[in-house]
Amino acid sequence: MANPSHLEAVNPCVAGRVRAEQHFLGGKAEDRSRVVPIVVHGDAAFAGQGIVYECLQMESLRNYTVGGTIHVVINNQVGFTTTPDRARSSMYCSDIAAAISAPIFHVNAHSMDDVANTFRIAAQYRQKFNKDVVVDLVGYRKMGHNELDQPSFTQPLMYAIVKNMNPVRNVYR
Q: Tens of pLDDT along 19-39?
């Protein structure tokens, strides 16, 4: 479903649509494997917006469950211009998923082999256990928050390193 914003408002809409599609496919309530919700989050939004936690904590409720959601966190390590140590009390933006004992996979987004393996494991986990799972893709934004942002103003050390990194598209051809 389209989500033209970082506001996470699409999360319950995705769950509702998936639940409806599961229902109308005529499958048994126990078999929710035919339609799998995948929700993409930004790192700061995943940690900081209450709607994310509200959807997470309802994942096992009988009249709500969709048999597990695969949550993908696009983690650029900087919530707009704020470093993690100034944005939240926990170490990782995905730590809120520990409240429901969801497995959280932190993976280097720059290593496509590791990313592919992590997604395979996450999909297998979701299908086998019908529970939420989180893939925290730890990477960077080459140009900062948007094309008009100059990230070296607020993150000079990180972006001195990013400036010299070989883009993933050049590494995996």
A: 999 999 876 766 788 899 999
